[in-house]
Design a protein that fits this description.
The structure holds two protein chains of two kinds. By secondary structure, chain A is mainly beta. Chain A has one helix at about 1-20, and strands at about 25-30, 35, 45, 50-55, 65, 70-75, 85, 90-95, 100, 105-115, 120-130, 140-145, 160-170, 205-210, 220-230, 235-250. Chain A folds into two domains: about 25-80, no CATH class; about 85-250. Helices cover about 10% and strands about 35% of the residues of chain A. A five-stranded mixed β-sheet of chain A has the order 7-10-15-13-12, with no helix packed on it. A three-stranded antiparallel β-sheet of chain A has the order 14-11-16, with no helix packed on it. A two-stranded antiparallel sheet of chain A has the order 1-2. Chain A is elongated and about 75 Å long. The relative contact order of chain A is 0.19. Residues about 15-25 and about 35-40 of chain A have low confidence and may be disordered. Chain B folds into five domains: about 1-20 and about 490-519; about 50-125, Immunoglobulin-like (Sandwich); about 145-230, Immunoglobulins (Immunoglobulin-like); about 245-330, Immunoglobulin-like (Sandwich), CATH 2.60.40; about 360-475, Immunoglobulin-like. Chain B has a nine-stranded mixed β-sheet, with no helix packed on it. In chain B, strands 9, 10, 11, 12, 13 and 14 form a six-stranded antiparallel β-sheet that branches. Chain B has a four-stranded antiparallel β-sheet with strand order 5-4-7-8, with no helix packed on it. In chain B, helix 1 runs antiparallel to helix 3. The radius of gyration of chain B is 33 Å and the shape is elongated. The chains are: A mainly beta, B mainly beta. At the A-B interface, helix 1, strand 7, strand 8, strand 9 and strand 10 of A face helix 1, strand 1 and helix 3 of B. Strand 8 of chain A pairs parallel with strand 1 of chain B.
Chain lengths: ~250, ~525
């Protein structure tokens, strides 16, 4: 009995591992994606009602070769390597400075480009190292919106408080930050300076792409905005939010 | 029991599979906002505007700083009532002007919220004529012609300036200079009567405004003067040479093995290793030279057991400039001395904190130190500095923040993966004498590096220690969460582990089956 269980388990793990990491897709179904299937003991194309497979028998001129213009990965499963890279987002200085008593609005932004040949795509999350995110030794700005609330199309802060928000912009931003011109999480537009949310110490998905985008990659800009209302007193000082972007393959 | 073992094994396999899929890149950055005093006032109107023609096509301007409740952001320059430029400095050179033409200038200060001061009083100047035709000094008809100084040109480097000018008659010249119009720093006199004059001024400070006055005296005693100013170049434009990395001194039976990694800078030339048996050499001449060259190891055989040797290594560039210095120490055991377990390589760990330091040193805080990458000052609020681990890092302490007494300022970084590995570096005064600095090569690995700064006050026999951290991120490439891998390849290590685990599982199962069959 134990032998049976263990054998079944080992088989399941082997199949699961293989499907997830060894193969990537060129063929898809509702439950899986296969990028380049091959069995290295015959040379044939096999088909059934649910799949088509091209297999190989022996190969020559395999391995990696490259010049300044190209890179070839020839041979059995040579192409399985997935490249996923993200450029560094630079630090942001919000401008202009906000008056502690008179209040005001301050803006800034940073950008990063993600490039991948992963046919399944990637996701980028954002999170703050503290809650609230924008803090000084003596005071803080409230994270915009309620926790886990959906983004607001227009940035709006009551005159008696202060808040700090972000808004991602780019072709691959997550659906919750897309809009239909007046509402976020609806439509497929990406209006400028729209769909604001507060940072949280929990990761929030801001970019989601389900295909490769090499070699050009995709640029995403994250805008930040802090506002102190005219009837709110914000303690003078330097406020800093430390933010982490995490890139994950799908 | 075996059943439990099998379940634990299954869980382990699952974890291995899950870990093998945990690929991620992290990228941290900071967002900074200044909430300041309210901007209720306009900046004050700039005063003391002076316009000085220095050639037939250029007029130099200088003025006094304005003040403002939230700080002055810059100045607008007006020429003949039209805005021609914006600057954040207190000088401006207006070039490309017509010869023999009078121009009127005003300046206006503004702050961060674009409140303007209003324009200053007008200053005017006339550019010189294009040609200078000096009369024959021996003609004897010079008395009726006005003595003129023309073609003045002042060019400055970081620490010197050259002032060239001509006179329409043969004159003996004298040039005065200073940081104020009292010209308090000195003067140079020409020895001969001449039409063309050239004066070099040395020992200047970088990034400083200087005033000068030319005094020309002709053969019949007529004197003509002309005033001007120049600014020496900033001292921060030249990148500093990075220190060597991973400098280690390892005691062996009869010698001390030194090893290090040279900087990868294209201007790197060689290293100089200095040794002392008293304390770390503070500069390239403060001890005995034990090695000079471009190798990355040296065996110091001229050593005596029982004596601690302190080594400082300085990287040298092709222009002869030296890095601030990296430090290491070692001691060969005396005969019969028992072995001690390996402890931290921090040379300052056993030095007690002695509080009788100079008051200025006593007041030092981590936030007094500047951390710069690519000429950008990083945010340092005292709790830790976030740095890009793929770039050089310069740590700097303003010259005026510590007293002019004999002292050693050093910084040590603790390896985040092995706290016994500590790499100390000297902060040494820079060429311009504006700061104590050290430039470190890229840390190359993500992690939190514990940072200790020590200031040894030799005069008062005291020691000040400060602690902080550097949070390094290696951006731009995917790595596993341990930071070891820089490209997102399939996790081959986890894959190999999985295969090994599967083989072990099969062996266990087969053994059990065989046992069951025997029973």
């Amino acid at each position: 009995m134990l032998f049976k269980n263990l054998t079944i388990f080992v088989l399941i793990i082997s199949v699961a591992y293989s499907v997830q990491t060894v193969f990537a897709q060129t063929m898809t179904s509702g439950t899986y994606k296969i990028q380049s299937d091959s069995l290295n003991f015959s040379g044939n194309r096999s088909t059934s009602t649910s799949y088509a497979m091209e297999d190989t028998l022996g190969e020559i001129a395999t391995g990696e070769s490259q010049s300044s213009l190209f890179k070839i990965k020839a041979g059995y499963q040579q192409m399985q390597e997935v490249i996923l890279s993200m450029t560094a987002a630079s630090d942001v200085t919000l401008s202009p400075a906000i008056g502690g008593v008179t209040g005001g609005t301050s803006n800034g932004s940073t950008s990063f480009t993600v490039t991948t040949d992963n046919p399944a795509g990637y996701t980028v999350t954002i999170k703050a190292s503290s809650s609230p995110a924008l803090i000084s030794p003596l005071d803080s700005f409230t994270d915009y919106g309620a926790p886990a609330s959906s983004p607001d199309f227009s940035f709006s802060v009551a005159s008696t408080t202060s808040a700090f928000a972000f808004s991602p912009e780019g072709t691959d931003i997550a659906a919750s930050f897309k809009d239909n011109g007046s509402v976020c999480g609806a439509g497929s537009s990406d209006a400028s300076n729209a769909c604001w949310a507060g940072l949280s110490t929990s990761a929030q998905t801001i970019v989601n792409r389900t295909s490769a985008n090499h070699t050009s990659g995709t640029l995403t800009t994250v805008k930040f905005r802090a506002q102190s209302g005219s009837a709110h007193v914000q303690v003078a000082g330097t406020y800093v939010a430390t933010t982490t972007l995490t890139l994950l393959p799908l | 029991m075996k059943k439990y073992f099998a379940y634990i094994f299954m869980v382990l396999i699952t974890l291995v599979v899950l870990v093998s899929h945990t690929l991620a890149a992290e990228n941290s950055f900071t967002t900074q906002l200044t909430v300041g005093p309210d901007d209720t006032a306009n900046p004050t109107i700039p005063t003391g505007l002076t316009a000085t023609a220095i050639s037939s096509s250029q007029i130099n301007l200088i003025w006094n700083a304005s003040t403002d409740d939230i700080g002055v952001d810059g100045y607008r320059i007006f020429r003949d009532s039209a805005i021609i430029a914006t600057t954040s400095s207190l000088t401006y050179s207006d070039a490309g002007l017509a010869a023999s033409t009078t121009y009127e200038y005003t300046v206006e200060a503004f702050d961060a919220t674009l409140k303007y001061s209003g324009q200053s009083a007008v200053a005017s100047s006339t550019t010189f004529g294009i040609t200078v035709t000096p009369p024959d000094p021996g003609s004897g008809s010079s008395g009726s012609q006005e003595l003129m100084i023309v073609g003045v040109n002042a060019s400055a480097t970081q620490d010197s300036a050259m002032i060239n000018f001509s006179t329409n008659r043969a004159t003996q010249s004298k040039v005065y200079w200073g940081t104020t119009k009292d010209y308090e720093l000195g003067s140079v006199s020409g020895l001969f009567y001449d039409f063309r004059h050239s004066t070099k001024i040395d020992n200047l400070n970088p990034g400083t405004n200087y005033f000068f006055k030319i005094e020309a005296t002709d053969g019949i005693g007529r004197i003509k003067t002309l005033e001007g100013f120049f600014q020496t170049q900033s001292g921060t434009e030249e990148p500093l040479l990075t220190n060597v990395t991973n400098f280690k001194a390892t005691p062996q039976e009869k010698s001390i093995a030194l090893s290090w990694k040279n900087p990868s800078s294209p201007t790197f030339d060689s290293v100089r290793v200095i040794r002392s048996d008293r304390f770390f050499p503070r500069d390239i001449n403060d001890g005995e030279i034990v090695y000079e060259g471009s190798d990355e190891r040296y065996q110091d055989v001229d050593v005596i057991a029982g004596i601690t040797y302190y080594y400082s290594i300085f990287a040298r560039d092709t222009d002869g400039n030296y890095s601030s210095g990296a430090l290491a120490q070692a001691r060969i055991k005396s005969k019969g001395e028992p072995s001690k377990p390996a402890t931290s390589t921090d040379p300052f760990v056993d030095i007690p904190i002695l509080t009788n330091v100079h008051p200025q040193i006593s007041e030092l805080k981590i936030t007094d130190f500047d951390f710069l990458q690519s000429s950008i000052k990083l945010v340092n609020i005292g709790t830790g500095v976030v740095i890009d681990g793929s770039k050089n890092l310069t740590i700097s302490l303003e010259y005026g923040k510590v007293p002019e007494i004999l002292k050693t300022i050093a910084i040590t970084l603790v390896d985040p993966k092995d706290s016994t590995q500590v790499f100390p570096f000297l902060l040494r005064i820079n060429k311009e004498k504006t700061a104590y600095e050290a430039t470190l090569a890229p840390l190359g690995r993500s992690g939190t590096y514990q940072m200790k700064i020590v200031i040894l006050d030799y005069k008062n026999q005291g020691l000040k220690k400060l602690e902080g951290s550097l949070k390094a991120f290696v951006f731009g490439q995917v790595k596993d969460l341990s930071g070891n891998q820089t490209t997102s390849k399939r996790n081959t290590t986890a894959f190999v582990l999985l295969i090994i685990a599967l083989v072990v599982a099969l062996v266990v199962v087969l053994k059990k089956k065989r046992k069951d069959e025997h029973q």
